[in-house]
Amino acid sequence: MTDRHHRRTRGTLAALAATALLGTATAAATPASGTPALPNPPSPRPTASHPPVTAVCSAAYRITKKLDGGATWNMCWRYSTDAGLILDHVTYQPPGGAPVRVLSSARLAQIHVPYDDGGAEYDDLTGAGFGWGLQDLKAAECPGGTLTTVKVPEVGQVKGLCTTTRARGHAYRMAADSGTGVHQAQAKDLLVYTVNKVGWYEYISEWRFSADGTVGANVGATGSLSPVDYNATDGRGWPIGKGARGYATSHAHNVFWKLDFGLDGGKDRIEQYDSTVTPPTGDGSPTVTTRRTAVTKELAGDAKNMRWWRVVSGTGKNADGHARSYEIVPGHTDTHAGRGFTKHDVYFTQARGCEQYASNNIGNCAPNAGDSVDKWVNGETLTKPTVWVNIGFHHIARDEDQQPMPVHWQGFQLAPRDVTAMNPLTPADLASQNGQPSLEP
Ligand SMILES: [Cu+2]
């Protein structure tokens, strides 16, 4: 990023087609007004059989970890000089169960950095060398783990991939019904991460896999503030160093991830849930109505209070007969209205091989296809959805940002919803407690 004035190619900012927006998403079979639209009770059926998930990469590119409690995560990794670390064929195997395909592929899809004064705008992945900036890690940076050498084209061998575990405290706690016993478990997560340097910034790109089936994706920005950006004299900066000078220019880091699920190895569908709260009348209590909307066409989605999305398997069901799904749980975000591709929080597009990066796309799409994710939301029916998550951080520098800059994290989680019939870590003596407990004395 030595070229301070490099600018991304600016495409025409076509207005998002109205058909892309929520209003036209096809509603699910909607019950009468005021009736909660939660998933239909399933018809009784035997446990779905799980096709075996076989490793599709050689041992050198495989990550397998059995965590405390008996759950196993399994995946393949590869490396791109644009996207950096890519994880493929990610499966979760609950204790005592068969492996469940969670993600067919997951990776970063852009880090877009526009400066508040309009003087610079970077696409760190496809325009500023993110992938080539893979850093050698010291053993101490991967405590208790394994450092793997990554062959980076034109760079060479970089000891840049850390695979390790990290304690995260309680997985659960429950006092026993009688006596003084406590059911509790302390959990460890599998962590997989790289550090990529772009200009003066260093991005820690971290994937976290928990024993309970949760996946976390986070990017931590550290390194240094850009030394050539202490020139904000127009009110768009913050004084760093002594007195009222050296104003570091404020900017944003809009981080995009691209997720292709293929839950349970089948076709996915997308659902959006919205809850509406009605204040009480008279002496009553507030009520809440939750509605489900099937997202059957491509969508540029906006986060909203009490709104969430989930990716649902078209085929896989848990032992209770409920469709397996993963819920998208965004972390804090500063949504940046500056570009068509930054102003929405999540995108669901029909999967297409050339659509690889959320902006400044380098996939070989047709000349008129547009080069950012917002352009690809154009009314297609979603039969094979790709999920794009955008988490923004508006960075107004502070004195503490030097030196080095403390890590600032931004990201999201994928939370399992009905992947297993119970908490996959349920201890054996509670295994019968599925469904409404008996109220008999
Ligand atoms: Cu920053």
Strand content: 35-45%
Quaternary organisation = single chain
What is the first-to-last residue Cα distance? Answer: 70 Å
Mean pLDDT: 89
Using the alpha-carbon principal axes, give the shape: globular
What is the SS-derived class?
A: mainly beta
Give the strand order, joined by hyphens, for the main sheet. Answer: 6-7-8-9-10-21-18-17-14-15
Q: How many helices in DSSP terms?
A: 1
- Domains (count): 1
* Distinct small-molecule ligands in the complex: copper (II) ion
Instruction: Identify the CATH class.
Output: Mainly Beta
CATH topology: Beta-galactosidase, Chain A, domain 5
Percent helix among the residues? under 10%
Give a quick account of the main beta sheet: strands, pairing sense, barrel closure.
10 strands, antiparallel
In total, the number of strands is: 21
Name the CATH superfamily classification. Copper amine oxidase, catalytic domain
Uncertain runs are: 1-36, 41-53
CATH architecture label? Distorted Sandwich
Write the SSE topology.
Layout lengths: L61 E5 L5 E9 L3 E10 L6 E15 L6 E3 H4 L18 E7 L3 E20 L6 E17 L2 E9 L5 E9 L13 E3 L7 E3 L1 E10 L7 E11 L8 E9 L3 E3 L5 E11 L5 E8 L15 E5 L34 E11 L9 E13 L24
Antiparallel strand pairs: 1-2, 2-3, 3-4, 4-5, 4-13, 6-7, 7-8, 8-9, 9-10, 10-21, 11-12, 13-20, 14-15, 14-17, 16-19, 17-18, 18-21, 19-20
Bound molecules: copper (II) ion (CU).
InterPro entries: Cu_amine_oxidase, Cu_amine_oxidase_C, Cu_amine_oxidase_C_sf
Pfam families: Cu_amine_oxid
Keywords: Copper, Metal-binding, Oxidoreductase, Signal, TPQ
